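Recall from the previous lesson that a structure prediction takes nothing but the amino acid sequence as input. Here we apply that procedure to Acyl-CoA dehydrogenase family protein from Streptomyces yunnanensis. The sequence below is the only information supplied.
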Amino acid sequence: MGERVASFIQQRVIPYEQTLEAGGPAARVARRRLQHDAKHAGLWALPLPTELGGQGLTLSQYAHLAEVEGASDHGPAALGSAPLLDVLMLARHATEAVRERYLRRISAGELRICFAMTEPDTPGTDPTLTATRATADTSGTWTVHGRKWFITGAGEADLVTVLARTRGGAPEADGLSLLLVPTTAPGFRVVRELSVLGTGGQWEIALDGVTVPSDHVIGPPGRALGIAGERLRLGRVLRCLRWLGQAQRAFDLMCRRARSRTQASGPLADRQLVQQLVFDALLAIRTTRPLVYEAVTRLAAGDDARTETGLAKVAAARMLQQVADAAIQVHGAAGLGPDTVLPGLFRAGRAARLLDGPDELHIAAVARRALRDHAATPTPRTAPPPP
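The prediction returns the following C-alpha cells.
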C-alpha cells in the first residue's frame, strides 16, 4: 500500500501542485480529477470509517501512509484523508441530524469543512479568552458574532466549525462551545486571504449575526475544550507525520542535487561541507521519526500522550525547517526560485513552529510535566548495570 500511495503522490499529485497552489476554477477541476483517480485506484479515504466510505485504517496502520501522503501539501486532500479530524469529531460528538446530513458527503469529498479557533485580537495559546460569542433564543437557535483567522481552507469551505463562548466570560474554561456553521448562512463572510510568508491558503472570516440551529452544536454546550483538545492531539501527530514526508522530499532533492551538480573541482557530493549538510539533515530526520511514532503508539493505545506529542511537535517542526534550509543551501540560487518546491517546504517548516501552538508553549508544558513527574519520584533513576 505504501508504494502505491507514494507512486500516486509522485506521478499524479506533484505534477498538479502549481495548479493547486494557484487556486481558482482550475485548481478545483484538478482536485476533483485527482480525487476521482484516487477512488478508482482504491486509495481513497484510507483512515476514514468504513461505514462512511473510507477504508477504516487505524492510526497505527495509517501513520506511515500519512508520512508518504504528506510529501505534498495536497496529498491528503487528493486522497481523501484531509477531513479525518472533522469526520472523527462529528462522528463522535455531533447530533444525529448533523451526522445524517453531512458526514457521508464530507467523507466523499462533496463538502469541504474547516475549523475556526484563533482570533485576530486574542492569544491563540489561550482559548479561554475567545471573544466570539453565541447567544440562544427561546427556540434554541444560536446567533454568532465574532471574527476568526488563520483558518486553513476557509475560502472554499462549505462548513466551518466555530469555537464561541456561549455562557460566562473569560477566562472561564466552561462556557465555550463548538458550532457547525454553513458558509452560505446570512452574516457569514470571508474577509480576506492571509499571506503566510508570501503564500496563501489561510483565511480570515467574520460572523455578523449568523444563526445556527440548535442541533448544529457539536457536543454538549459549554464543553468545547475537551473536544478541541482531543482533536488537537491527533492533529499535531498527523502534522508531524506529514512534516516527516516533506522533510524526506527535501532530503531527496538535496542528495540528487549534490550528486548531479558538478563544478570545475568535481561534484558537490565530494565537498565535505555538503556532506556535513547531508549528514545533519539525515540525523535530524532519523532522530525525529522515533519521537513521532512513539506519540502515534501512545495515542493509538489511548494512553496519555501529551509529553510525547509535545516532544514530537517541536522536534518535527525544527527538523523540517533544518532539512529544507540545507536543501536550499545545496541548490544555491536555484533553491530560492520557483523551479523547485524548496521555498514552499522552507515556509512550511517555519510556519510549523507556530501551527497548533508555538514551540514555546509545548516546551514549557513538557518541561513542567517532566519536573512534576521527577518530583513525584524521589528515588533517583540510575542506569542499569552493564552486562
